[in-house]
Amino acid sequence: MIDGRMTQTSDPTFELLTPQFIARLDQLDILSRKLLAGKLRGERRSKRLGQSVEFADFRNYSVGDDLRFIDWNIYARLEKLLLKLFLEEEDLAVYLLLDVSSSLDYGNPNKIHYLKQVAAALGYIGLINFNRVTVVGMSQDLVAQGGPMRSRRNVSRLMEFITNLKPAGSGHFTQACRHFALAHRPKGVLIVLSDFFVKEGFQEGLKYLASGRYDLFCIQCLSPQEIDPDLQGDLKLRDMEDGDTTEVSITQPLLKKYRANLDTYCQSLKTYLIQRGATYLRTSTAVPFDRLILTYLRHRGLLG
User: Fold this and answer.
1) Which domain does 53 fall in, by range?
2) What is the pLDDT of residue 39?
3) Alpha helix ranges (H) inside the chain
């Protein structure tokens, strides 16, 4: 550890984020479009050391108010007791729900590694801004949880937890979402990282997450091989999660129909989320990771 920043030689978990990229993340913060903060009170603790308190308004003094927040300059001029009010910045809860079912261990570049990098970057941004960061892995159910964590001193812990998550099992999206919502009741920003290939359908699970408690942001990640498969001839295809197999003859009309069905499915996911006030972003692992974080997520309002 040098000057509060990790170096590649001091931390073995830098397979997810390089020191050079981390330096660029130091300028970012996770934003919430919903009113998760903003109570008025006489005093608050700033999220950042040395950040000034933001003045909001005055109100008349009432018996029992804290005398420390009376504006004595105004009293000297007007002989009126007015209490200074300031904006209270509540610490923001940031939840990262990372799909680690077997279907994520696919593609070149690999989907699970790509989404681990996204989770690591967002978790890091949350920690350095003193948000409460919780990372949850989901497969058949919630398989692992790291946090809540806060502050830069927990960056190594965050990276190690994400690195150690291994893809396994068939996803049970509805059950995982339900258990997450029951276990994490405080409001906050919820970022779901998945391919959203859900056999039982995504609607039943997402209804637990899009209920209004969370500022929901869903990132759907697909591999280039899933978006535009290079297949031909007679093949036996096997589901990576439950082992189901099917024999198909790959033709150009069939591939065209597959692409149309995929676009329809992704559009239905997008529409479902937007109608419920959530944000949707579809990406490919072919998109450079730094561009996704530094450009696309900023344009979508998650980062600022």
Assistant:
1) 39-88
2) 41
3) 19-25, 72-78, 111-128, 155-164, 173-183, 203-209, 224-227, 252-275, 289-291, 297-299
